[in-house]
Amino acid sequence: MTTIEYAPALDPLLEISVPEDWLVGVVPEPGQRLTDADRQEERLLGQLLLGSEQPIATRLGFVYYGGLSSDQETSTPDNQISVRYDSETEQYELSSMKAKTTVRTVDAATDWINDQFHTVETVVDTYLVVSEIGADIHGLGRTGLRGLVNTFETIAAIRDADVETLADVPYVSEENATAVQTALADVEASDGGNLTARERELQSVDSPLILDLQEGPVAGKLVPSGASEPKYRTDGFEWLGTDR
């Protein structure tokens, strides 16, 4: 099972009470998981990538898993809040789809993260609806769809905008804008009942995970730097990666 050591300064943020449909996890440094692999060649590659120093993860990811997919082509974009702790400056570097900042205290980081949860959810939920209807609109590609969502953020704002205003978004024509508004007129708010198998399983996660940037959520053990025992452990999920 994968074991990841992380910076203790991240600990208070791992204990944030995340909203429903969110999860939090430590993001390993590049090659960090390989140093714990079963295969010798992978361990050697991890050591080559990391050098002689013991790898310590310094980044967290808060992930809204609505629309989360293992397929990079269909996975929902911009569904994360990222936190990186810079030990040299003792600062937290924070970013989401809509904002970016640096703060010095964990309390300030916590407040900023809590403010971003609703913003990210709103934009992702809008993207899921718009991308579904956009699949049937000829000539409206992913770039145009994302432009609409990033510009207007909510279904209501897209519905209420003038067609000419929608068409100001790059890669969106007046014809496509009209088709989007026509399709949205029949869209009801989602009740969250149509969860994927992945989303249903993630609902049962009650502790931080390991968030591999390429593989997604991974079961394993999380150990604060300097501790002798894991503080968090998550396993038993059918599609979460375990040992390499």
Automatic annotation (TrEMBL):
Classification via SUPFAM superfamilies: RuvA domain 2-like
UniProt xrefs under Pfam families: HHH_5
Gene3D superfamilies, per the entry: 5' to 3' exonuclease, C-terminal subdomain
InterPro entries the record matches: RuvA_2-like
Protein name (database record): Helix-hairpin-helix domain-containing protein
